[in-house]
Specification:
Neuraminidase; single chain; four-stranded antiparallel sheet; alpha+beta; F-box-assoc_dom_typ1; globular
């Protein structure tokens, strides 16, 4: 006996709730092939309601998130990925068509910043930035606002309704200006710059905390912030810990805590590395010391070239990295312990071109 074909009239009238339930039971590979069959399926799969309703009940999304919560290295189109859930490394290859959906020809590009499932690349040949969601295969090309393609401290910040791009640029003049791109209005705004935050530390990004971007200045060290709405700069009236040799900032994301990582020593040489937290009274409270053996290794890795040190937050971890060393030192906040991530087997121990790591936690419907 042959099974009768399902009446298209019945299938086409199925409520979205039943369709969601059926789709959520599909294997992951089949699910993402399904989105290309029709516009209705694609919009349904990537709708916030579908993701919200099935993120905990269905296996596909949980597996998907566990498989893709990783750190990403800016080297080539083949990305070494560390899966923090499974605790191992894997390689993922991305074609240029995945990154340059809005361009017809291949261009050189560099990964500059990441936030909430979005990446921001620079395209020097077209004086543009490319913001994209690799999972949803959506992207937007943003033209540079000034005459010459020169900028500092570019930072991508996700917001509930989109994202913002922050940078300093001198354009054709010698004075720096602050530029902020808002995806809600698809336009740039220009404000007065703040030269004291500029230094040789070109790895530093702004740290988004309480509606502002926070930066550290070169010696004498201080913390300054930029209000993304008003465009005003302010220097924090908080006393930093003494005998600092370098300082970096990290924000804990949803927990709303601001941390400071710094070397402590004398004559520009660190003897130890410490972690502080900004209290509600706006004081820096010491949280942890880096254990001695780990501290010796880390300081020998960066060889007291602290401009090579950068930090970021990733899923409950404060990651401390060095531009000339592929390993990542991290502090697990909930357990109050320090660890080194295992070495990536596909990477050399050292590299003249340097290593740059980014945090990536996917958001299927992060808008571009």
């Amino acid at each position: 006996m042959t099974r009768p074909a399902m009446d298209p009239e019945i299938w086409s009238r199925l409520p979205d709730g039943i369709l969601e339930k059926i789709i959520s039971l599909l294997p992951l590979k089949t699910l993402f092939k399904l989105r290309s069959t029709c516009k209705h399926f694609k919009s349904l799969i990537f709708s916030p309601s579908f993701i919200s309703n099935h993120s905990s009940s269905s296996s596909f999304l949980c597996l998907f998130l566990r498989s893709f919560c990783f750190l990403i290295l800016n080297v080539t189109i083949t990305f070494p990925l560390y899966d923090s859930g499974a605790g191992n490394w894997r390689n993922v290859s991305l074609s240029l068509s995945d990154l340059l959906l809005c361009t017809a020809t291949s261009q050189s590009l560099s990964l500059l910043s990441s936030s909430n499932g979005l990446f921001c690349f620079s395209l020097p040949s077209s004086s543009s930035f490319l913001v994209c969601n690799l999972l949803a295969r959506t992207s937007r090309l943003i033209k540079f606002p000034a005459y010459s393609f020169a900028f500092e401290l570019l930072t991508l910040v996700s917001t509930p309704l989109g994202y913002k791009l922050f940078m300093l640029s001198s354009g054709s003049s010698s004075n720096f200006s602050t530029f902020v791109y808002d995806s809600k209005f698809l336009s740039w705004r220009q404000f007065d710059g703040f030269d004291p935050i500029l230094s040789d530390n070109y790895h530093q990004e702004g740290v988004f905390f309480d509606g502002c971007l926070y930066f550290t200045t070169p010696e004498p060290f201080s913390v300054v912030c930029f209000d993304l709405e008003s465009g005003k700069w302010e220097r924090l009236n908080t006393e930093l810990p003494g005998e600092l040799t370098f300082v970096r900032l990290v924000c804990s994301g949803g927990e709303g805590k601001l941390y400071l990582i710094g070397g402590v020593g004398s004559n520009g040489i660190s003897r130890t590395v410490k972690l502080w937290e900004l209290s509600q009274e706006r004081n820096w409270v010491e949280v942890e010391n880096l254990p001695e053996l780990m501290c010796r290794k880390f300081l020998s890795v960066c060889y007291h070239n602290y401009e090579h040190v950068y930090c970021f937050w990733h899923q409950g971890m404060i990651c401390v990295c060095c531009y000339t060393w592929p390993e990542i030192l991290y502090y697990k906040v909930s357990r109050r312990i320090w660890h080194w991530l295992p070495k990536c087997p596909s990477l050399p121990v050292k590299s003249s071109c340097g290593f740059r790591w980014f945090s990536f936690v996917p958001e299927l419907y992060a808008p571009v």
